[in-house]
Amino acid sequence: MLNLELLSVVSDISEDCRPFGISPDGQFIAAAPNSQPSIVQLKNFDGKVYKEFLGHKDKIYSIDFSGDGRTIASASADKSVRIWSPTGELYTLFDRFDSAVAVVKFAADVPILAAGEVSGLIVLFDIAGNYIATLHSPKGQILDLAWSKDSGLLAASCADGKLYLYKITDQIKKVYPHPGPVFGAGFSLSDGRISGVWKLISASNDGQIRYINLDDDTVKTIAAHKGPAVSIAVSNDGNFIATASLDRSIKIFDAYGNLKYAVELSDEPLSLMLSSGGTYLYSIVRPNKIHIYKITSKA
């Protein structure tokens, strides 16, 4: 069994900033403060500001660290993505968007980013700001993006009630309908190795978690929450999945959908992230706070 130990609460975080960003070593949080939504702040566990990143002209909706921790991307309502150094130096400004940018994600092992617009377009570009491609089809706001570990697959969670899966190399697309908005998804492997079968795990408005086997498209549905499941985080080894719901709960499931731990909160959790090693769980919780938990095993 698993246990969550609350270590710290960081205040003054914008509820609009979900997902926020966690450095790969788990030591820093990058988020937009509620009082100054045009600034990205890099904070440590104590909530003290380490660096401020100036440049955006409107609200920041998404922040992501590259896998090596050397760059940070921020997406904004000002129709741009900015790529920064951890010390606040602006590396790249990419502004080839038609609408506000709702989410940005680095690919796992190649210098490519995917950014989703509120209009439903998904734009791919490299870390130097060179345009690569635009992925079409979604008819609503992109709520989340997720890359597979080998960067060959991209999942787009959409407000139109569909989960879109793109195979990047040959531009094959699959669509998985849901009964309402899909708030997030993540990839897991059946045996923890790249040679295994990919599973795509989604969180949606009906409170259910869906395990989609990408080998045969079979779906296992778990009645996880009594309210909308608004965020999902999959550990790097694929052994467990954390979910957050507007029913004021955070739950942890194993790779097969078995419940391993649940915590009830006094306020609604809005977003989740796991540290790269799976030791820490971070959650934005209303009003404007990040809860930091340590994940431990118990007999």
Approximate helicity band:
under 10%
Task: Describe the main β-sheet briefly.
Answer: 4 strands, antiparallel
Class computed from helices, strands and strand pairing: mainly beta
Strand content: over 45%
CATH top level is Mainly Beta
Number of strands: 28
Distance between the termini: 6 Å
CATH topology: Methylamine Dehydrogenase, Chain H
CATH architecture: 7 Propeller
Overall shape: it is: globular
Question: Can you identify the CATH superfamily?
Answer: YVTN repeat-like/Quinoprotein amine dehydrogenase
Core attributes:
mainly beta; 299 residues; four-stranded antiparallel sheet; Methylamine Dehydrogenase, Chain H
Topology:
Blueprint: E1 2-11, E2 21-22, E3 29-31, E4 40-43, E5 49-53, E6 60-65, E7 72-76, E8 80-84, E9 90-94, E10 101-106, E11 112-117, E12 122-126, E13 131-135, E14 142-147, E15 153-158, E16 162-167, E17 172-177, E18 182-189, E19 198-204, E20 208-213, E21 219-223, E22 229-234, E23 240-245, E24 249-254, E25 259-264, E26 269-274, E27 280-285, E28 289-297
Can you tell me about this structure?
The protein has 299 residues and is an all-beta fold. It has one domain: YVTN repeat-like/Quinoprotein amine dehydrogenase (Methylamine Dehydrogenase, Chain H, 7 Propeller). It is built from no helices and 28 strands. It has strands at residues 2-11, 21-22, 29-31, 40-43, 49-53, 60-65, 72-76, 80-84, 90-94, 101-106, 112-117, 122-126, 131-135, 142-147, 153-158, 162-167, 172-177, 182-189, 198-204, 208-213, 219-223, 229-234, 240-245, 249-254, 259-264, 269-274, 280-285, 289-297. The protein has a four-stranded antiparallel sheet, with no helix packed on it. It has a four-stranded antiparallel sheet with strand order 2-3-4-5, with no helix packed on it. It has a four-stranded antiparallel sheet with strand order 6-7-8-9, with no helix packed on it. The protein is globular and about 45 Å long. It starts with a strand and ends with a strand. The relative contact order is 0.14. The model has no long low-confidence stretch (mean pLDDT 90).
